[in-house]
Structure formats: structure tokens, C-alpha cells
Structures
1.
Amino acid sequence: MNRILFTLTLILTSILHTDTPVHAYPKTQGTCSNDLFDAAAAYAGWPVDEIPKVGRIAYRESRCQPGARNSCCHGLMQVHRAWLRRFGLTQAEARDGFTNLWLAHEVWLVSGWTAWSR
């Protein structure tokens, strides 16, 4: 089991810790969800039954671009800069795909889906 976890970690690190858009990998229109994205989201702590929604939100917020940013929000899930300060992360760290999924999960634990409601 540790060997599988180690291998998964290497794969996720090599792919998600780059500026390669998640959408470069096969996916369904309207979601970032695919095997790689789903595995990364699960590894970041997201409950399996919430991962489809995470994929749809990441698509809506950033079109699956880990490096996405605007005047206040960063990364796949467009996490607001106030949350970066709260967790001691830099803007560059928030634009790392896996880190952003982890951070978004932490935000979700505190505020639920309201952080992404429009």
C-alpha cells in the first residue's frame, strides 16, 4: 500500500505541480474531472461524493488552469487571497494545482460551498 501511495504521490507531483493545464488531459466538457483530477482531489482531502462538484467548480472558475488568477483569487478553484493569508500561503503557492485543491478543501471545511456561490 505504501508503494502505491508513493507512486501516486510522484505522479501527482510531477503533473499537478506544473503550469500544465489540467484540461490537457482527457475530460468531459464543463468539468475538470478526469482520473488524474479526481485522484488529486481525493488525495487533497475531498470526499469522493463531492469530487464531481469540485471538477465543475474548477472548470467554471479557471477552465482547469492551475495558474489562473484575477484581482483577488488564485488557482484552479479561484481561492480568495484572504484565505491565502489565513493559511500562510503565497500567491504562487496557491497557483500550484494540488496546493490549490488542498486549500479549497480547507476553505470548504470552514464555509461549505458558499465561498463559490454566485
2.
Amino acid sequence: MLGACGGKSDNSDGNFDAGSGGGGGNSGSGGNNDEGSGGSGATTGTGEGGVPEFEGPVESIDDVDGTDLDSDPESAYFFWRWGVGNWFLDAPEPNRIRTDAVSAEIEPPRGESTWAYRVQGTGHSRGVDLWAQLKHPEGAALDLGSTYAGIVFWAKLEGASDRLLVGVNPGVYYFDAPDAVPTVELRVSAEWQQFVVPFDVWKGPEDAVASFDFIVGEGGGDFDFWLDDLGFFCGAACPAPE
């Protein structure tokens, strides 16, 4: 994957507005394992009653607040076990977006979390893709399935649709080659939810993952999407720090 270098955004309000897109043809959700709400084997919880917050061993990829190593909550890059990563936002022609993603302050905070990635927009018939490149800038794919059991993250979504596609990307731009990116469909509410998604849900290449992709806004309706605290969960214990 290619992408601009990470760094501070000059977006003064802390939000990325994907704006109003034009028609983009049919939905680019190829490769989707349409498992319905939560996906097969995926679980959700609010941490505030209902399904309890996941309490298994978790290793942070990006907490967005800037407490993981030296990362800055106002930048798109993050530091984690395997080096430097970066968040990007992508949308297809005819209204191409390809830029660093932007984080915003959570008001009121979600517990101790005060920053998250936020994307707003309308009129993007194929949606937009918020994606975390794990090895920046080279975009190398990593063998994650032998070390981790899946991913965990927090999200909320308001707008015309509650549909979120989450993909394990082997190293392509999603909208250029959607069939190459296994995805699972989740239903996301306007309240913060925690999602726990095992790798076997995707039935895909967990031994070659270059990015995790989060696609929203398909169909062209308005959307306001937030994502926070992306991490891995481990089957037993997470590997010891090196």
C-alpha cells in the first residue's frame, strides 16, 4: 500500500468531513462474508451493562489517546509492537479521497478515552474506507494469525445506515480490488459499542495482513463514524514485550 506520511493534521476542528461525493457505481463490498449483525463469531458489548466489556488479554494497536509509546493523538501515525503504523482515509472516483485520517476529541469522554478517529460525509455510493496501515510507509503484510486470535475495537455510527464492513487487507487499496479483501459485516449503533472479531470470522489471510479497513457510508447516505482503541486479543496470553 502507498500513502502519505503520517503527521499532524491541519484540520483545525479535529474532524474529517468526507463531504458530499458523487455517484460511484455499485457498492464496492466484494469479498464480503455477509454474516449479519455482529458477524458469525463476532461479539459486541457496551461495557455499561448488557454484554460485558471484553476482559481477555488485549494488546493495543492504537489507543488514539497518545498513551501507546510516543504517539500523538492529533496525528495519523501510531507506534506499536511491530513499529510505526498510520491511519488513512480513502474513497473512490469520481470523488477521490486519499489522505491521512483525522482524530477528534470525544465529548464527553468515553471513560478514560478522550480521542478517537472520526469520519463524516454523505453522497459516497461506495462508501469511504478508514484504514490502519500496520507497517508504514512500506505497507508490508504481517503474519498475525500465529500470534493473535482477532481484533477488538470500539465504534459508534450515526446516519442513514448502521452497516460497517471490517476487512483484513493483504495490501491493496480496497476500492481498487474489493474482492481481494475479506470483510465481515457489523451493525453499529449511535452509542459506543465494543466489537470483538476473531480472525476465523473472515476466513481470510490472517497470515498476510497489511491493514485493517473500516468501510462506512455505502449507498450514499449521510454518516458520522467514530472508531477507538483498536487492538488484538489473544487466545491465552499476549506475547511478552520484546
3.
Amino acid sequence: MSPQPDNSSALSSPMSQAGPGEFSPAERSLLLRIAHESIAAALENSKPPLLPPSGHLAEPRGVFTTLYSKGELRGCVGYVFPVMPLCQAVGETARAAAFDDNRFYPVTSQEVPELKISLSVLSPLQLIRPEEVEVGRHGLMVSLAGYKGLLLPQVPMEHHWDRITFLEQTCRKAGLPSDAWQRGATLEAFSAEVFGDKGAEP
């Protein structure tokens, strides 16, 4: 499974400055280093950085990697599902965000020193009822008849959406009518721990 570009708005928000979460400062720092080094290695046609062989960062997790350059979104690609160890997924999504997000031209070696990176590590998806959705806490995935759409928890906060608007916009992201959440679509929620380099925001 290939990492997928995120076509919603940029990922950063006040949540990116959140306090202690699941990942320690050292783990956050290591994941960001893996992301930066993976991009640099791809440009140099060298081997990607060595990954931690075990432990917390070896657990399969979904993750989105967002790149910023001079305060502007430069790429965003991720895995929704936990298809590989987190440390590996960070490296792959960082490279994909730099070179495979077709909304942008590939990152150049001149840009690398100024790149800022934000990571959104996703919790497992869980079924949820519409009335249980909490703006600012939940990300959403809507699916129906082969159509799927996902919005990260930060998106409704950035756009000042209420719960109903969040549900409608996630349906639209899936290519479904905005009221599909009322007409049999499956709703799944997740949370995201967001952290990044200083200045990794638009």
C-alpha cells in the first residue's frame, strides 16, 4: 500500500504545540530526524537512515507527514492504516511528501535546509455514531459504496466548523453527498498526536 496525499488544508494547528502525549520528547525528536534524513538521503541517492530495531517506534501506526517551506505548505502524504512500523512509515511518507505529492513540484536540495516538518501519528480507527463526534478531538473517515474520505482532527478547528459541518465536509472529501453520514455511510473516528519542528506551521 502506497502512502496517500492529503488534499485537505495544512495539518498544523495549536494541537501541534500540545503537551505530553504518547510519545516522549526523545521519540518525537528521533521521528523528526528520520523524516529529515530520509528526504536528504533520497536527494543524495544514498541509503535511508537506520531505523530503531524494536520498541515503541517499531509498532505499526498510521501517520501523515507534512512539509512546510518558508511558511507555506510544501507537501503532505500519509498512511491512514497501520501498515508498517511507525519509524519506517515516517521515512516513507516524508520521502513521498517531498517528491510524490502531485500538487507540488519535487523538493530540491536547495530547499532542504529550510524545510520544516510536522508529523500526525494516528490512533486506530473506531466506529462512531454521528452524535459522538467531537470537534477538536476526533478525525473522521467516511466510507460508502467504495468511496472513502478522511479529514484530520485539526481541519475543522482551522476552519471553525461545527460538528455537522465537519461530518458534511468529510462526506464531500469522499466524493459523496454531504448528507451521506445520515444515509448509511460508515463513520470511523481517530485521534492524532501532532508534533513538529519549530516553525512547522503556515
